[in-house]
Design a protein that fits this description.
By secondary structure, this protein is α/β, with parallel strands linked by helices. Helix content is 37%, strand content 21%.
Length: 267
């Protein structure tokens, strides 16, 4: 029997189940890979917002990483919510210690509800430590603007300019997600050393968008774990997330921004 592909998520939990670790594991499974997890923070969270955050002690984060990497052959890593500089330093040290290579960094800064998830003091640590180690970073329009202290990109030209500025900070590739834009299409731009790729899908009118960023970055990691090149992994993930959003209104979860339908192909 051949070895099972494995993806690891290093992120915060979402007690409501729509984002964070919970969304990541669902996306891994839906895209055909085994999922493992390292929890960096606990959130009291639902479809209406984030009510409280409890950071996991850095030493315990390190222990989780050592436990996973010492036993499981991890093919790809998705990195999500890392709320404090000490957590970023701990995760970076763990990745280096275990020789992790294929990493998707979702620079989670603000929840769909608008609640902040990243301390201001942690932004520079993320840029200096994790950007150079990531295969690809996946900011949305608001995160890209915040990372660059720049206005929100209002055109594809502005998105490309911000992608180039983010890549100059050390990331090997940048995927700027245009889901928060206002055009008829939801356009993402992927910038690699080979150039810029445009990935477009129809914009879907729904309030059920909780966890879409987590889900996309996890789906990318899943397809990288399956051995696909980055451009193919991003394309497959975009197709999956678009279908999950389109099917989200089949779910009736909570009273706010509901989750996407991770298992739309099955039920």
């Amino acid at each position: 029997m051949s070895r099972s592909p494995i993806a690891l998520t290093i992120a915060g939990s979402d007690s409501g189940g729509g984002a964070g670790i919970q969304a990541d594991l669902k996306a891994f499974s839906a895209n055909g890979v085994y999922g493992a997890s390292v929890i960096t923070a606990l959130t009291a969270q639902n479809t209406l917002g984030v009510q409280a955050i409890h950071d996991v002690p850095p030493a315990f984060i390190a222990a989780q990483m050592d436990s996973v990497f010492s036993d499981l052959a991890v093919d790809a890593v998705k990195i999500g919510m890392l709320s404090q500089p000490q957590v970023i330093e701990t995760v970076t040290a763990g990745l280096d210690r275990h020789g992790a290579r294929t990493m998707v960094l979702d620079p989670v800064m603000v929840a769909t509800s608008g609640d902040p998830l990243l301390a201001d003091s942690a932004v520079n640590a993320m840029k200096s430590l994790l950007f150079p180690r990531a295969l690809v970073i996946t900011p949305n329009l608001h995160e890209a603007a915040a990372l660059l202290d720049a206005p929100l990109a209002d055109s594809e030209a502005a998105m490309e300019d911000q992608a180039r500025r983010l890549k100059a900070l050390g990331a090997r590739a940048v995927l700027i997600k245009g889901g928060h834009g206002a055009s008829a299409e939801a356009v993402d731009l992927l910038l690699t050393d080979a150039g810029i790729s445009r990935l477009a899908s129809r914009r879907i009118a729904t309030l059920n968008t909780h966890g879409t960023g987590c889900t996309l970055s996890s789906a990318i990691a899943a397809h990288l774990a399956l051995g696909k090149p980055l451009i193919d992994a991003v394309g497959a993930a975009k197709t999956y997330v678009t279908a999950a959003i389109a099917a989200s209104d089949r779910l009736a979860i909570g009273h706010g921004h509901g989750p996407t339908h991770h298992f739309h192909a099955w039920w």
